[in-house]
Fold this sequence. Notes:
- By secondary structure, the protein is α/β, with parallel strands linked by helices.
- It has 2 domains: 5-130, Response regulator (Rossmann fold); 135-199.
- It is built from 7 helices and 5 strands; from the N terminus they run E-H-E-H-E-H-E-H-E-H-H-H.
- Strands 2-1-3-4-5 form a 5-stranded parallel beta sheet, sandwiched between helices.
- The longest helix is centred in the last third of the chain and has 32 residues, at 168-199.
- It is rod-shaped.
- The protein starts with a strand and ends with a helix.
Amino acid sequence: MEALRVLVVEQTEEIGLELRGIAASLGHSAIVAVDGEEALGYLHALPFDAIVAEYGLPDMDAITLLGRVRTEWSQIPMVMLTTDAAGGHALEAYERGVCDVLRKPVAAPWLAIAFQRVAEQLELIQLREATVVSPQQLAYRFAHAINNPLSVMFGLVQLMLGSDELPPSLREDVQMLADNTLRLTQIVKNLTQMAVVDDL
């Protein structure tokens, strides 16, 4: 697991420093904020991989902080600390997307497990982002998918136009179909060329 940049949000200075020390002992770096507003200030100024926040902050609870965070930093996992992990707010926190809930006082092994869950969540986020198809890839796949059916359609239309058995009443419609099929074929060709050029 790579080192995490952790924002600790804890109103009690001693506990905040203790959590920072535990994070450091586990190979992670941490900055301590004493309330939600200070935490949001740090988030605007510095990049973080995770937030560790106590539930009962002076200016807002951790769930409210999570809501504020999600509006601008939707991908940052949060670990919530509480004096009652069985409380109703713990269940609500999980429903709102908190990565883990730990009961205070927090021991190093439990925080290590929470950080592992954070790392796994970040890995999933990166995996989802890596599988997002670029516009160029999408254009190429679309062009490739319809190229063969278009070629078959164009060939059939040409056969119909070359047949003496095609009624004159239908010939104009079939010719229009041939013209439009040819236009679509050229569009597909252009999409394929654009996708290849943009990927170079």
